[in-house]
């Protein structure tokens, strides 16, 4: 009665029932199965198995009947090959499943990397487009050279005009200075002689 009440209670976990199977490491078993599948998928396995089967046939056919362990129809060989096939198929499937899991993980990683690379490529494309737009507004080397040459020509023309204007001003100043200044009178130039002659002429011809 007490056991029935204990079994019906929901606040206590049930004790595990049934046959307890031996525990094993799935990863280790998977590596072991992959090793067997790889060895069975090689040419060495086929050659060795062919040699064993040939020796088996020869021994049980040519040897004396007293030492033959598997006479004709080779029932024991058929059983061995059946067991081998029955175990080889699940091992190969297990190896294929593990390889499929690795391929799935690798595919997800490749997809993630491809997505990241696509995002990086789009970012770089936008940056390059922005740089092209910015460079379109920046003066190039040829443009700067052309502008400097034009400015140098304008400076030369302005300098020439300034020199001409200075020369004209100097010429006007010289002309104005010559008109405003009188030459001093002296005997060496004969100024007084010319003045005396003029006075005598005036005296001689007062009406003249």
What does this structure look like?
This protein is mainly alpha-helical. It is 76% helix and 0% strand. The protein has six helices and no strands. The longest helix has 62 residues, at 75-136. The chain is elongated, with a radius of gyration of 62 Å. The N and C termini lie far apart (182 Å). Mean pLDDT is 80; it is low at 197-208.
Which structural class fits the helix and strand makeup? mainly alpha
Number of extended strands: 0
Largest sheet: none
Please give the share of residues in helix.
over 70%
Overall mean pLDDT stands at 80
Order of helices and strands: HHHHHH
Low-confidence stretches: 197-208
Radius of gyration: 62 Å
* Outline type: elongated
- By DSSP (H or I, 4+ residues per run), the number of helices equals 6
How far apart the termini lie comes to 182 Å
- Strand residue content: under 5%
Keywords:
208 residues, mainly alpha, 6 helices, 76% helix, elongated
Show the helix and strand layout.
Elements: H1 2-8, H2 26-40, H3 43-62, H4 75-136, H5 141-180, H6 191-204
């Amino acid at each position: 009665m007490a056991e029935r009440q204990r079994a019906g209670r929901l606040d206590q976990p049930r004790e595990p029932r049934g046959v307890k199977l031996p525990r094993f490491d799935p990863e280790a078993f998977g590596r072991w199965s992959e090793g067997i599948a790889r060895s069975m998928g090689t040419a060495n396995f086929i050659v060795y198995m062919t040699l064993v089967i040939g020796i088996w046939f020869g021994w049980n056919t040519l040897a004396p009947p007293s030492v033959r362990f598997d006479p004709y129809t080779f029932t024991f060989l058929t059983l061995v090959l059946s067991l081998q096939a029955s175990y080889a198929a699940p091992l190969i499937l297990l190896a294929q499943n593990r390889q499929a899991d690795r391929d799935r993980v690798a595919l997800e990683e490749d997809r993630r990397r491809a997505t990241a690379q696509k995002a990086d490529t789009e970012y770089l494309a936008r940056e390059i487009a922005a740089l092209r737009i910015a460079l379109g507004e920046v003066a190039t080397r040829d443009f700067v050279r052309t502008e400097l040459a034009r400015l140098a020509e304008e400076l030369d023309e302005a300098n020439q005009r300034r020199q001409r204007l200075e020369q004209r001003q100097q010429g006007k100043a010289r002309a104005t200075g010559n008109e405003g200044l009188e030459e001093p009178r002296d005997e060496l130039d004969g100024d007084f002689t010319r003045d005396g002659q003029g006075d005598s002429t005036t005296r001689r011809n007062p009406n003249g």
